[in-house]
Amino acid sequence: MVSAASHDTIPPGLELAHRKFSTVVPAESSGEGRPVRLDDLDLALRLHRLRLVFFFSGPAGSVPTPDLKLPFFPLLKPFFPSCARVRVSGSGRPFLHCNDCGVRIVETRSESPMDRWLDTHAPLAPDVVLGSDVNFSPLVAIQFTRFSCGGLAVGLSWAHALGDAAAAANFAAAYFRMLNGNPPPDPITLRKPAAALPPLASPPQSVKPGKTVTGSWLAAPEDTMETLTFRVGGEAVAALAAEAAAGTPFAAVSAAVWRSLARIRGSAAVTVVRFGGAAREWILGNDLTVGVAAPPADFSLAELARVISRETADETAAIAALAAAEAAPPDLVMYGANLTFVDLEELPVYAAGIGGQLPAFVGCTVDGVGGGGCVVVLKGAAGSDGGRTVHVTVPQAEAAPLRTELLPVFGLL
Description:
It is a single chain. By secondary structure, the chain is an alpha+beta fold. It has a single domain, classed as Chloramphenicol Acetyltransferase, CATH 3.30.559.10. 22% of the residues lie in helices and 28% in strands. The protein has an eight-stranded mixed sheet. The mean pLDDT is 88.
């Protein structure tokens, strides 16, 4: 199945009503007044935000809202930096001031059934921006949306400066475990130790200077962007992987999008983002690898998949070094500086649920995407038999022709 929507707007025929706002703080003071350093890579990614939305049908939708909110009180004790607010040191370097200000909670409902929202999920995670007064803006916000069919969506809006998609997914998994009556996670390392940075030899090609929405940590849009969501079945994924001789479905699916988009806009370098895995000894931070690859002369699916899998030049350290080069970090855009492929295949978003009921569907998108576009690949829902969910954010003028290109490729006609 496929749909298209402007990234954070609600399409015609759908609406959200009865919004109610509140704030949840830790049950006990935790980290009060403690400064938490933002590493150089955190600062390089600070103009981006992640949105994760978990959809539940059946009995999970009947859990009362107070019961949904209750786990956050103990959860925020080990995850206390999620309650912090941004401050700027005298040198101009931002850091987190842990003052237990809490996370924002939004409650809302839709008179439409849940299945109409599966491919238009971004509005179901709160539209929160760090700014214009960044000192008071929450790093994390949660939205509970109830649907006319009795379903429930739990949406997480997560500042990328706080951590990557794996960190966001671990936060969500800890919440669901506690909602099911399990104890909060044991105290673990707060952040991965920062590695020493090599000198910046040449500017990385996977980022570019970004303009911000005035006073905020959000990249100003270069163009009107549109997100296409494809729910690709396992049979189509297997066929692509066989044609591409790819080691992973991610490489095969990404190669298909790259080839189709090149027919529309021409060939250009791409960025490939991978994560260090969800099994970590720390709870926050960006442990990702950012590689850049030049387009090959041969645009066959197999060659494109090979380049994505094996021919990327790692620029992660160079991006961090660029952010560290000045006391006040530069405004950078990474997602969409080039066409950017994001590998979330191993993200355990279907591993935890509500009362033993796993999510019916999970979506994940990125805010602040540049004009090069962004492709996020996740595992498909249970029952998809090895399928993949593919979110493709591109300039609006490219969305319709790209959809036409990809529908037969993904076996969705």
